[in-house]
């Protein structure tokens, strides 16, 4: 059996002879279009191998011709023409087409489809597929649109008001009155009168008949002469069942609802029936 296979590869045995004698399993890897014109396919170790038929020569993967063949005897695929090259007929795809001139030539698909990309994105062809990418300096989804990222905030000379300092916190510009000054740091901070130095942190001071009057700033609470803090907030589900949260003395505190008693942090039960 191995001798027959070797003979077929050199063109001695006919394709019909081998097909009659080789088991059908040897043709399992071959398909109808595996080989070219005037060539037969054989399964060798699970791989299709093409061989020119007896009396024909050439490239069995594309086309085999008899000695002395001319273009008149050759049928090229659509959009392909035959030319005599080195006294042998050869099919060539027409200009603007590509593919196998013995099986079929077609116009190549556009390498890129710019309309598939969004704004500020460039189109590239990768393995015949359209791939979009944001241009340098832009971010986002290249298929929807790319934008320039906002620059990181910076403290400018006019970011804050007079006698105020600028600090970047959490990616934002924050203004603070300088030590010994008070007021609106975004507009202007005034020097704290000597009498107002008795006020605590986060307070505003007013002088009345030479005496300091301290008040907590908006959004703060506490003793303005010791210091004011932002009140804590009631968080969802911070209290037990049948209990509610209230800010009491600047701190969130749980109370049983009216008509209920118990531990408001764990849960309250109806007063009736106890």
From TrEMBL:
Residues 67-106, 151-190 form the EGF-like domain. Residues 1-15 form the signal peptide. The keyword Nucleotide-binding does not apply. PROSITE patterns: EGF_2, EGF_3. The keyword Signal applies. Keywords: EGF-like domain, Signal. SUPFAM superfamilies: Growth factor receptor domain. This is EGF-like domain-containing protein. It comes from Steinernema hermaphroditum.
